[in-house]
Write a structure and sequence with these properties.
The structure is a single chain. This protein has about 280 residues and is α+β, with helices and mostly antiparallel strands. It folds into 2 domains: about 5-120 and about 270-275, Diaminopimelate Epimerase, Chain A, domain 1, CATH 3.10.310; about 135-260, Diaminopimelate Epimerase, Chain A, domain 1. The chain has helices at about 30-40, 75-90, 135-140, 175-185, 220-235; strands at about 5-15, 15-20, 50-55, 60-65, 70-75, 100, 105-115, 115-125, 145-150, 155-160, 165-170, 195-200, 205-210, 215, 245-250, 250-255, 265-270, 270-275. The chain has an 18-stranded mixed sheet that branches. A hairpin with a 3-residue loop joins strand 10 and strand 11 (about 165-170). Bound molecules: the ligand N[C@@H](CCC[C@H](N)C(=O)O)C(=O)O. The ligand N[C@@H](CCC[C@H](N)C(=O)O)C(=O)O binds next to strand 4, helix 2 and helix 5.
């Protein structure tokens, strides 16, 4: 399936880059083959993912996240910040907040303005869940927190749902991400694969590298930074209810984790890159 969107818009949040397709008029989403091709950095436009904006009965738009391998993700923190910049900068208005429907529910987003429109976005990400169908706890009914990762001696992890699944490894060398990430992404205890965070606690907050489900190593990951901060708070390594700095290869995100995990906040910069006409998929 091609798309009803005539133009694409490329954005990034700290180097985590996305192609936005505004499909609110036609209402038709793309298929896996088309998203793989759009994301291809040699044969297509190039991105970590495609964000389709579809009509919503309850919010300004419904965002569907397509990973670069063609799979669908329930949620994407940096992607939502990019989608908010698109939606607001093309609205001719400067709202204090907008709502977007995602696989993690309807989320409230607060744009911050600079000279080129939206410059940063804060998102009320909703709850961090410790029991969810896409975590090991879906089968056991028990949270998986600071436990030995089956089949990987010496590894301890925290399984956290931010809409999408995450396995957070605290005190893990960040250099391990490219070696262990692809294996842990497909750990059999995660029924829908998982994102994997390699995290170190620093004096300033956290340093993290994320191996993302469906696209591999990225410069930054919003839900991954949230999951890392939640794990550090649960492990009592960092305080709840404070803004925490999470340093990723692409730069810093700021995360606040309430002690009851009810509404994690994510804040960071967002940039427009370029726009173009949606090309036809070769061979179609
Ligand atoms: N980079 C994103 C997460 C994108 C989805 C992820 N790859 C998944 O499959 O869950 C973010 O900023 O949260």
């Amino acid at each position: 399936m091609s798309t009803t969107a005539e133009f694409f818009f490329k954005y990034h949040g700290l180097g985590n880059d996305f192609i936005v397709l505004d499909c609110r008029q036609g209402g038709t989403d793309i298929d896996a083959k088309f998203s793989q091709w759009l994301c291809d950095r040699r044969r297509g436009v190039g991105a970590d993912g495609v964000l389709s904006l579809l009509p919503s009965d309850t919010a300004l738009a419904r965002m569907v996240v397509h990973n670069s391998d063609g799979s669908i993700a329930e949620m994407c923190g940096n992607g939502l910040r990019c989608a908010v910049k698109y939606l607001v900068d093309h609205s001719g208005e400067k709202p204090e907040r907008i709502e977007v429907e995602t696989g993690a529910g309807i989320l409230t987003c607060m744009p911050g303005y600079g000279t080129d429109g939206v410059a940063e976005v804060e998102i009320s990400m909703g709850p961090a869940r410790l029991i969810a169908p896409n975590l090991p706890s879906g089968a056991t009914g028990q949270p998986f927190l600071g436990e030995a990762v089956p089949g990987h001696s010496g590894l301890r992890g925290y399984a956290i749902n931010m809409g999408n699944p995450h396995l957070v490894l605290l005190d893990q060398p960040l250099e391990d991400a490219s070696r262990l990430g692809p294996v842990l992404e497909r750990h059999p205890d995660f029924p829908e694969r998982t994102n994997v965070e390699f995290v170190r606690v620093t004096e300033e907050g956290l340093a993290a590298v994320v191996w993302e489900r469906g696209c591999g190593l990225t410069e930054a990951c919003g839900t991954g930074a949230c999951a890392a901060a939640v794990a550090a708070v649960l492990a009592r390594r960092l305080p709840a209810d404070a803004w925490l700095r999470v340093t990723l290869p692409g730069g810093d995100l700021h995360i606040r984790v309430p002690s009851d995990l009810s509404d994690v906040r994510l804040r960071g910069p967002v940039s427009f890159v370029f726009t173009g006409v949606v090309p036809d998929l070769p061979g179609r």
